Amino acid sequence: MNPAKDRKLSRLALNVLGVFEAVGLVVITLATLVASVIEVKVMVDAGTVTLADLLLLFLYLEILAMVGVYFRSGQLPVRFPIYIAIVALARYLVLDMKSLDDWRMLGVTASMLLLAVAVLVIRYGHTRYPYNETPQDRDSLP
Fold this sequence. Notes:
The radius of gyration is 20 Å and the shape is extended. Helix content is 82%, strand content 0%. Helix 1 runs antiparallel to helix 2 and helix 2 (51-73) runs antiparallel to helix 3. It is mainly α. The chain has one domain.
């Protein structure tokens, strides 16, 4: 096999994937912005703001922040999706509290607690055992 040809093919594949990744992130950003505008319109039409509305807007904001971090650094911290999951579970708990039985409510709160502990473990591991690998370091690997 020709190593130079393989390297060119790998770079081409990475570039194509990078384009699809950027397009996907732009689509996610636009969809999140549209959903945010629709939610604000719903609140204005209703003339009231509920906790569920605020939590939903916070979810949208977290998604935008996650996309922003990815565009800035080229890396996606695992913590961001976990934060989004915690807020989504909190929203579910707030909206459906009256219809949830005790065990389901306990399960949702236990899930939120496990996710919060996961964030703490990830943060501890990152500060205790840091890694210095950057995207440039990965590109220079053979």
